[in-house]
Amino acid sequence: MARRLGACAGIIAVATSLAPILATGTAAADTMAAQATAAASGETGQAANRFDEVDWTAVVAQALDCPKPKPNDTWYVVRARVAAVGDLTGDGRRETVVVSSCPSPTSSNPLIAFVYDGASKRSAPRLIGELGKNRYFKSQKVTIQNGRVHLRGQAVSDRAPNCCPDLVVRQTYKWNGTQFRRTSEKVSRIS
User: Fold this and answer.
1) Angle at 105 between CA 101 and CA 111, to 5 degrees
2) What is the DSSP letter of 126?
3) What is the distance between the terminal CA atoms of the chain, rounded to a whole angstrom?
4) What is the pLDDT of residues 11-54, one digit of tens each?
5) Which among 4, 34, 89, 94 is placed 20 to 30 Å from 127, CA to CA?
6) How far is CA 36 from CA 49, 83, 94, 189, in A?
């Protein structure tokens, strides 16, 4: 009996020590991952998190060039998500890749990956690339590896209706000193 109580006490102690970590959820995990990435790349403190407080929705809304809504169009809500952060220009500063699309009252519009320069001011992020515009991406996962941006997602071909993606598209982009160039594209049909 004493052994069982001791084992239960140990489990409760571990659960209690993990409770603050588990309660913070993925936001804390994302923050810790970003800090670990920053530390590994030699960035510290404010420099590593200089774009954390940017209103990316407002920034991307300017770049989207969407048709203007009517005054009572409640459906017109721009959404943006930071998809990846990493040094893409080779200057030691981390660029931010934000994915968004123009709002629509019916079907969704294609997703675009917007790249913002890590060397620009936080108050005015400078757009240096719009990736994936040659495809009608309905979903988009963005990763950064070895200074390259990788897009992967489902897309709509010219033969499919906008509602129903029929392709899986993988693209890779690299900064050439002045702009991003697509270095590869692989397309396969969804069966």
Assistant:
1) 15
2) P
3) 58
4) 434 333 333 333 333 233 333 334 344 444 433 333 344 556 89
5) 34
6) 12, 17, 14, 37
